Amino acid sequence: MEFPVIDPVAIAIGPLKIHWYGLMYMIGFAAAWWLGTVRAKKPNSGWTRDEVSDLVFYGAMGVILGGRLGYVFFYNFSKFLADPIWLFKVWDGGMSFHGGAIGVLVAFALFARSAGKRYFEVADFMVPMVPIGLATGRFGNFINAELWGRTSDVPWAMVFPSDPDRLPRHPSQLYECLLEGVVLFIVLWVYSAKPRPAAAVTGLFGVGYGAARTFVEFFREPDAHIGYLAGGWLTMGMLLSIPMIILGIAMMVWAYRNDTRQATA
């Protein structure tokens, strides 16, 4: 199956060009804001519309700054050492989910301090909305024909134009869009609809994302300049995701043992 011809530029007005990938980020942030305001309107939510807007802004900064730093230091540190200015060349591409996750966690702490809220009051409120951004981001990867999967003979395998070998591959971006995005969103949205112990929702996100990403890594082609890390199967994505599962489980166990109830709106 040939990859469909998709112009990476969604809107072009003279010299101004808006790429689909950037538009996907905007859609993700807008969806997070809208879903947050929906929950903020519920009785006794403890949140206002302005607080949701501020939190989404903090989160967006965390995603962008953390995602770029994470990609540079986790996936291409050697290139950074050779050309430190490359860190600021965001137009060259390169964003890391795990770096973005760290950036968002820091953003939660900064927002919590400025708003006078407890850390997990902020994190548990916001993380159910995060998978929507993951879904749109992965779909943006698909449109860009990047981060494709390993070679395969499944009927839906695609030949991506960016693949120099022109081999049929798993459309792993769509697998991630479905599992890390749609499925994880449904699980977290339903789970967080009722009051849960503080940190339980955030812990479930760690377990859910880590498990989904680790699973998809078996179908995703590792970064060419990194390859497999051990045994011909371990990838950098797995190495960064497995600790998320362990930490997420530990957080949920801690949350339920303490049973400190905190409404997630």
TrEMBL record:
GO molecular function: phosphatidylglycerol-prolipoprotein diacylglyceryl transferase activity
GO biological process: lipoprotein biosynthetic process
Superkingdom of the organism of origin: Bacteria
UniProt keywords, alphabetically: Cell membrane, Lipoprotein, Membrane, Transferase, Transmembrane, Transmembrane helix
Binding site for a 1,2-diacyl-sn-glycero-3-phospho-(1'-sn-glycerol): 138
Subcellular location per the Swiss-Prot or TrEMBL entry: Cell membrane
One CC-aspect GO term: plasma membrane
Top-level EC class: transferase
Membrane topology: Multi-pass membrane protein
EC number(s) recorded for this UniProt protein: 2.5.1.145
Transmembrane segments: 18-35, 55-75, 95-112, 174-192, 198-216, 228-256
Record's function text: Catalyzes the transfer of the diacylglyceryl group from phosphatidylglycerol to the sulfhydryl group of the N-terminal cysteine of a prolipoprotein, the first step in the formation of mature lipoproteins.
Assigned protein family: Belongs to the Lgt family.
HAMAP family noted in UniProt: Lgt
Protein name, UniProt field: Phosphatidylglycerol--prolipoprotein diacylglyceryl transferase
Organism, scientific name: Alcanivorax nanhaiticus
